[in-house]
Amino acid sequence: MSGKLSKNITFEEALLELESITRSLEDGKESLENSMELYEKGILLKNFCETKLKEAEGKWAVLKKNGPGSYKSQPLDKETFFEKEKNEKSQENMF
Asked: What is the pLDDT of residues 66-75, one digit of tens each?
């Protein structure tokens, strides 16, 4: 086992492969050596997926209207977003 993943692997491909490895390990039909290799690759895939998810969390964006029929993406201002959500819930509770 090389200890590396393909540079071009996507999150979805990694997740599918991780699920396949999990099924193989749960099945218990693999040799000890192959099970260890699968487990090692599974750890790499798990770490890759966690990293991709953290990156995605950091890229939250909101669409802001920029003229008629035009939108642009901007970084999410968490304080403004959650304050707006809190205000909307307060208004719902008034009625």
From this structure: 566 666 666 6
